[in-house]
C-alpha cells in the first residue's frame, strides 16, 4: 500500500504562564492510502495536538512545533507557506470535530453550506454545487437529500448534524479525513451508526482516516491499526488484532481492561489508578512508571527503547526489551 502520510519525531510545545508544556514528545507514524489508523489515549495525551499539527492548526503562539517532519504525499507540511497550506486544508485533508454545531453555521441552510465549501476551493457552477451537495447528503445517509437542502442545522437531530458535517468534510473529495472524537457527543446507538458510516464511506471513496478517540471500544470495529498515546508519546502501535489480543504495554492492557468488551464474558472493568505525569517537566524514564504494576528500577531512570514485536507491532516498554538488563547492570 502506498504511503500517504509520514510523521517523524514530531514535538509540539505550548508556552503557558506556568511554563512550557511538552504536549507531543517525539511522535512518529505512517498512514497508507485507504487505511484507518486510530490514535487512542486519555485526554491530554497529545492526540488532538498531533492531529491539529497535521492540519497546521496549532495556535502559534502559544503553540509551537519544535521538531519533526510531516510529509503528506511526500510534501513537507510543517514548513509549507500558509497560502499553500490553505489549498490542502479541506481539500486534500479534511477534519471533523466532536461537536457538529461548532462546524455548522446556524444562519445558513445546509445546502448553502455544502455548496460554499465546494465553491471556495473549486470553480463549479451553482447547479453543479447543488448536485454535489445532494450526492454527498445521500452518501452520508440523509433521506430525501434534495428536499433537505433548504433546511437549517437546528432542524436536524444531533446524529444527522454530524452526518452533515461529515458530508461537508468530504465534498472536495479529500484523500485524508481526520476525525477528532467524532462520536463522543452522540448517544451509543447513533455512535454505532456514524462508525458504520465511516466504514461505508471508506469503501466507496477510498479516503484514509485518522480516528482520534479516548475510547478503545469505538475503534474496535473500524480501525486497521491502533496507536496508543500516553504523555505525549506513542507507547504502542500495532494492527487491531495485535493491540486487542497481543498488547504488551501495561498501559494498553489497562485501557483494554477498562472498556466493555463483547468478546469477554467476565466483564469486570478495572480503571487505571493514578494520573498521567505533569508535562511541564516530563520524567526522564517511562512516563507510566508511577502507575505501572510492573515497574522496575530501570523504568524510572531511562526512557524505554522501541522494541519490534513484529513488522507492524512496536512497543516502548522495558519488559519487552532485553537491553533493560544491560542498563540495570550498568547502573
Ligand atoms: Fe511499566 Fe516499566 Fe514498561 Fe513503563 S517501561 S510500562 S514502567 S514496565
Ligand atoms: Mg482532544
UniProtKB/TrEMBL annotation:
Its placement in the membrane is given as:
Peripheral membrane protein
> Which PROSITE patterns does the record cross-reference, listed alphabetically?
ABC_TRANSPORTER_1 (PS00211), ABC_TRANSPORTER_2 (PS50893)
UniProt GO molecular function: ATP binding
Give the ABC transporter domain ranges. Answer: 7-256
Predominant location of this chain? Answer: membrane
Q: State the CDD domains in the record.
A: ABC_NikE_OppD_transporters
Enumerate the UniProt keywords alphabetically: ATP-binding, Cell membrane, Membrane, Nucleotide-binding, Transport
> In the UniProt record, does the keyword Thylakoid occur?
no
> In the UniProt record, does the keyword Metal-binding occur?
no
Q: Which family does it belong to?
A: Belongs to the ABC transporter superfamily.
Q: State what protein this is by name.
A: Dipeptide transport ATP-binding protein DppD
Gene symbol here is dppD
